[in-house]
Automatic annotation (TrEMBL):
GO terms for molecular function: beta-glucosidase activity. The lineage of its organism: Eukaryota, Metazoa, Ecdysozoa, Arthropoda, Hexapoda. It comes from Rhynchophorus ferrugineus (Red palm weevil). It comes from the Eukaryota. One of its GO terms (biological process) is carbohydrate metabolic process. The keyword Signal applies. Homodimer. This is Uncharacterized protein. Residues 1-16 form the signal peptide.
Length: 498
């Protein structure tokens, strides 16, 4: 073992600031791709029969919550999808992660009326990807609930479970012969915590510690039911896989005292585990159940603000991811905090966790306050997921770097970010035994970044959002990523070893 480690160090190159960059080659069958979401790139918000979704409504009715910008046109990928496929082909990726806009194929959300133009849009996209040997990795819900369903309560209405299953069946019937990799939900923590808790994201409902948990509950059961339906009705003939994408920071203990170690673990369980535990083990993490129940009691509630799964629901959701996915951007430190004073009738998720979470000032900043560059956190997070969930296959389904979108020469910023994160992820794969099988960089192009509008960007291609043609222009990082995906090497190929 020692010898092996020494070899690795000898063959690694030292990056400018003491980071080692692995010179090993990723496995031949590693899935390299980029990721996107319908609302962020498509535009065509009311084109050809598309229905309104909660992001159309939020950006139109509450522009102040969305940097006074919207995705009405965005990258115009509704019209320019062929050009995007050409860019993907030029980059050499073998996978493309994108989402289907529910309200484009089913304008009201219900399956009783579908939109042929919307159905054709994704049919054509999928066919073009496959013709170029790019595997589609398809997200069914990337935050854009049809407003008809939201007006009925959205994820706070248990009927949403069945509406989602109907939508999923509709997608499997139409696209399932061509799509073998399905993601039900993207980042349910964001959907629920910020859609129904803090209100920062559409549908902008403010109900912290209550509706966020109800949303999570219905979403998890919706996922489980859709998974079972695929298993029963499609798996035999289509033979695809179904999973969920969960996002989390890595939480590093602020010190090695047991209270801080426990504080970091508790954050991971309340963040990744909120969804990861139910779909793997059939229930929420014990610590979530205990803390929310006891705080609810102190606040005067008759029962816990965290809903309870019935035995039947536990069986439905238990073991419903064919592999694990994680979106990684940054990390935080966590330390124990003195138990906060209970404010009656003032529930919220952060108080339920009850720790201090912060990022040290000397961590490398980006343009976004919460986003520090912490490459080593990515290795620790996938290792934690691997250890916690019994060494499953894991895919990183998002990872990318924020800047203000004006920087074309981004090798030392965005290029370096992907290089350092990938190097750490490769260490997880080769040194820690994590079964990491793919990496989807966010993003192919600049796009509409939700509440930030167009003010922050992560693309390998710049898009001029004031030009009606929405031209794409390569940033230097696109060339670096092309090198990585075509050679499997983070360093120049002549320095790379198998
Ligand atoms: C579809 O079903 C919804 C909900 O039951 C109903 O409101 C709507 O009128 C139906 N649409 C059509 C075209 O039948
Ligand atoms: C989930 O399934 C596993 C394996 O069958 C089982 O050990 C576990 O008890 C189940 N969880 C729940 C909450 O029923
Ligand atoms: C990793 O996952 C892949 C895909 O599920 C599987 O084929 C492979 O055997 C796994 N490798 C290890 C070492 O578990
Ligand atoms: C964008 O970021 C770059 C690099 O940090 C900086 O030089 C430039 O002034 C910024 N532009 C705007 C409009 O903030
Ligand atoms: C974007 O497009 C507008 C309109 O065509 C043009 O005036 C502007 O110079 C372009 N900006 C960049 C950075 O190319």
């Amino acid at each position: 073992m020692d010898v092996l480690i020494i070899c690795c160090c000898l063959f690694s190159i030292v990056f400018a600031d003491d980071y080692f960059v692995s010179n090993r080659r990723f496995p031949k069958n590693f899935k390299f791709g980029t990721a996107s979401a319908a609302y962020q790139i498509e535009g065509g918000w009311d084109a050809d029969g598309k229905g309104e979704n909660i992001w159309d409504r939020s950006t139109h009715l509450y522009p102040e919550k969305n940097s006074y910008q919207n995705g009405d046109i965005a990258c115009d990928s509704y019209n320019k999808w062929e050009e995007d496929v050409e860019l993907l082909k030029g980059m050499g990726v073998n996978t493309y992660r994108f989402s289907i806009a529910w309200s484009r194929v089913l304008p009201t959300g219900f399956v009783n009326s579908s939109n042929p133009a919307g159905i054709a849009y994704y049919k054509n996209l999928i066919a073009a990807l496959k013709a170029n040997n790019i595997e589609p990795l398809v997200t069914m819900h990337h935050w854009d609930i049809p407003t008809v369903l939201e007006d009925l309560g959205g994820f706070t209405n248990p009927e949403m479970q069945e509406w989602f299953v109907d939508y999923a069946r509709f997608l499997f019937e139409i696209y399932g012969d061509d799509v073998k990799e399905w993601i039900t939900f993207n980042e349910p923590k964001q959907t629920c915590e910020h859609g129904y808790g803090t209100g920062a994201l559409a549908p902008n409902i403010v109900s912290p510690g209550i509706k966020d948990y109800i949303c999570g509950h219905n979403l998890i059961i919706a996922h489980g039911k859709a998974y079972r339906m695929y298993e029963q009705e499609f798996k035999n003939k289509q033979n695809g896989r179904v999973t969920m994408v969960i996002d989390s920071n890595w939480f590093e203990p602020a010190s090695d005292i047991p209270e801080d170690v426990e504080a970091a673990e508790r954050n991971l369980l309340f963040t990744y585990g909120w969804f990861g535990h139910p779909v793997n083990f059939g229930d929420y993490p014990e610590i979530m159940k205990e803390r929310i129940a006891s705080r609810s009691q102190l606040e005067g509630f008759e029962s816990s603000r965290l809903p309870t799964f019935t035995e039947e629901e536990k069986q439905i959701i238990n073991g419903t991811v064919d592999y694990m996915c994680v979106n990684i951007y940054t990390s935080s430190m966590a330390s124990a905090s003195a138990e906060p004073v209970i404010k009656p009738l003032n529930p919220d998720r952060d108080s339920d966790i009850g720790t201090n979470v912060f990022q040290p000032d000397d961590w490398e900043p980006t343009v976004t306050s919460w986003f520090k560059v912490v490459p080593w956190g990515s290795r620790k997070l996938v290792k934690w997921i691997s250890d916690t969930y019994g060494h499953p296959e894991i895919m990183v389904t998002e990872n990318g770097y924020h800047d203000n979108g004006t920087v074309i020469h981004d090798i030392d910023t965005r290029g370096r970010y992907h290089k350092l994160y990938l190097s750490n992820l490769q260490d997880a794969l080769y040194k820690d035994g994590v079964n990491l099988t793919g990496y989807m960089a966010w993003a192919l192009t600049d796009d509409f970044e939700w509440q930030y509008g167009y003010n922050i960007q992560l693309g390998f291609y710049q898009v001029n959002f004031t030009d009606p043609e929405r031209p794409r222009r390569p940033k230097d990082s696109s060339e670096y990523y092309r090198h990585v995906v075509t050679t499997g090497c983070l360093v120049p190929e002549e320095e790379c070893i198998d």
